[in-house]
Amino acid sequence: MMYYFIVNPKARSNRGMRIWDVVEKELKKEQVSYEVYFTEYPHHATDLARVVTEGGDYLTLVAIGGDGTVNEVLNGVVRLEQITFGYIPAGSSNDFIRDLHLPVNPVEALHNILHPKYYKNIHLGQIIYADTRRRFAVSSGIGFDAAICHEALKSRLKNFLNRIKLGKLTYMGIAFHQIVLCKPELLTLHIDGCKTFQFPRTLFLAAMNCSYEGGGYRFCPKASPEREALDFCIVHGLHKWEVPIPLLAAKKGHHTRFKGVDTLRCRKARIHVDTPLAVHIDGESCGFQTDLDIECSKETLRIIAGC
Ligand SMILES: Nc1ncnc2c1ncn2[C@@H]1O[C@H](COP(=O)(O)OP(=O)(O)OP(=O)(O)O)[C@@H](O)[C@H]1O
């Protein structure tokens, strides 16, 4: 059996390549047939996944990188049903692995792929904005959480914290900076074509396929990628000084008890804000938008899960 690997050598401030070296040694030891492709620039993983899958053959495709690499690979896959997806985490936050119980250790993660015991069929999210349609595996968001992702993508703090093995603190550090900068907006949410809600002074809306984002913040504790629905968390109407309290509580998923935090579940949603706000999918930037459609895909992805 042939395995196809797409590796982001730059993930977690260049640790991706070191993780590949470890993985490659094991592949050789186990005499596995494989092809490997390395990303050379942002979004290259999407082009590589398209090239690997455009023949239409059924194959096992493995991503090595962070949540952003998972996102870029899945956006290049021509038909989701033609692949079995394996993932070896090499990012700074790795939120995708949490609900799927995947090993963090690269050798264990590889053995889990080569000798799979459990598979899951998961749904992906989709976002549509300005004539662009993109899949997401973990979450999408508009407002404050997306502004944090935008800043993290160019952050020197992230590189520094990754070097001293404290990369998970990146998002927390940047969050405090973004609380100062953020400008809450009235957000209109229309769900499943039937209900409309208005949230004054919205800090952010997160649309979650998995329960964690931002390096372990459990914004939608009941979200599951196996369900054909997305969970939403909307934080609104708070003074800036009140914001850190529910944010810190979100580490354990306890923030939903606080005033100004609403959650709901739906299959599709239309979102509008008057002023363009930062948007992200799986931590990758989708620029600044006023109108978004977000939905849960009907198609499923077969993924090699952990136990
Ligand atoms: N060769 C490359 N050079 C520069 N950037 C790259 C390259 N390959 C991929 N990228 C970019 O690296 C970024 C980060 O990748 P990824 O999300 O996988 O790792 P991470 O940020 O360390 O992890 P996490 O998302 O879990 O915090 C993505 O925006 C991707 O487009």
TrEMBL record:
InterPro entries: ATP-NAD_kinase_N, Diacylglycerol/lipid_kinase, Diacylglycerol_kinase_cat_dom, Lipid_Phosphate_FormReg, NAD/diacylglycerol_kinase_sf, YegS/DAGK_C
Keyword hit for Endoplasmic reticulum: no
PROSITE patterns documented for this protein: DAGK (PS50146)
A Gene Ontology molecular function term of the record: kinase activity
Origin organism lineage: Bacteria, Bacillati, Bacillota, Clostridia, Lachnospirales
Pfam families reported in the protein's UniProt record: DAGK_cat, YegS_C
Domain of life: Bacteria
Family assignment from sequence similarity: Belongs to the diacylglycerol/lipid kinase family.
Keywords, in A-Z order: ATP-binding, Kinase, Lipid biosynthesis, Lipid metabolism, Nucleotide-binding, Phospholipid biosynthesis, Phospholipid metabolism, Transferase
Protein name: Diacylglycerol kinase family lipid kinase
Gene3D superfamilies: 2.60.200.40, Probable inorganic polyphosphate/atp-NAD kinase, domain 1
Cofactor(s) the protein requires to work: Mg(2+)
DAGKc domain boundaries: 1-131
Organism expressing this protein natively: Diplocloster modestus
